[in-house]
Known about the structure:
Blueprint: H1 7-23, H2 26-35, H3 41-49, H4 52-56, H5 67-77, H6 83-98, H7 101-112, E1 118-121, E2 137-141, E3 144-152, E4 162-168, E5 179-185, E6 191-197, E7 203-215, E8 219-220, H8 226-237, H9 247-260, H10 267-295, H11 301-326, H12 344-351, H13 362-372
Helix pairs in contact: 1-3, 1-5, 6-7, 6-8, 8-11, 9-10, 9-11, 10-11, 11-12, 11-13
Amino acid sequence: xxxxxxxxxxxxxxxxxxxVKRTVTTDVIxxxxxxxxxxxxxxxxxxxxxxxxxxxxxxxxKGDPIELWxxxxxxxxxxxxxxxxxxxxxxxxxxxALGTDEQKxxxxxxxxxxxAMVAMGYSEADxxxxxxxxxxxxVKDGDEWVINxxxxxxxxxxxxxxxILLTRTDLDLPKHKGLTMFLLPMxxxxxxxxxxxxxxxxxxxxxxxxDVRVGDEAVLGGVNNGWRTMTTVLAFERGVMGGSNAAVPLxxxxxxxxxxxxxxxxxxxxxxxxxxxxxxxxAALLTQRSAWIAASGGxxxxxxxxxxxxxxxAYQRISKWCQQMAGPAGLLQFHEEGAAGEGFVEYDxxxxxxxxxxxxxxxxxxNNIAERHLGLPKSR
Length: 380
């Protein structure tokens, strides 16, 4: 089996690296962590101008399918703010797969140009993993739908142009059957966004909907087909759009700091760094498999779950090791004198638990693997 990249893909990767070097400055990284908005208009515009977002949309990409992985792997390894474009391109993939021709013409250009971000409205305060039990309602009123309710964890809502919103539209159908997904502009009257600060620095949001009115053009994937639309989004999210090599920038920061402190002479430090590098290489290979399936028009739901479970737990383990090896300096934050890895050791220790939750918790993904891959009975 040949894992080497083609010459064209290598050139694509180098161009991504050049763009990151020009646009992702220390000020951009600092702004990302201080503002809590993990997106960079400068980076997004440059990637869009080169046509790289269009090439990365699952099912639409014009280049080698592995470019989907290359793009987000390079952004992730550089510690660039990629969450915004990752969500946007994920939704672009769903619009490309399930949207109407009118939706594709109206929504896709703003995403693939790098102009528009997208927020996801699934979970509610009382319904996180049990999304099928949501209470946000959409009721037909003439030619319009009237939406009332609230969502939790609508990350990027403070900066997004579009919102993908899961609602209940039929109370008489089983809970998985009576759901409808909408894709609507964030400036639609009746939408209120309130910030929620998280352990991992990123700002997410609570979003409220008071008599929000939209037409049938906002329905994505068909009325009462919302569950299928949401599982399509999750198939792209898990193990495809970044999140699987999050420890790479941490290892770079820790290695440079450890070298300056003379810690690389320690057998324990070298052994743990070696294990960490191996884990990240395994995660990269798992992600390549998921990315290939998604970019080739498939739905890598099971493979994405496998990737996410391994990568999230490896990241958490590596961040714990780095903080232990750094000692007291690993507790110091950004801009504090003497902070290990310029504060990234402490940051990643806070951020790593978060990745075991978003995109489906580790427990949910384990159940998916157990039932669909191992053939084990449902746990509940």
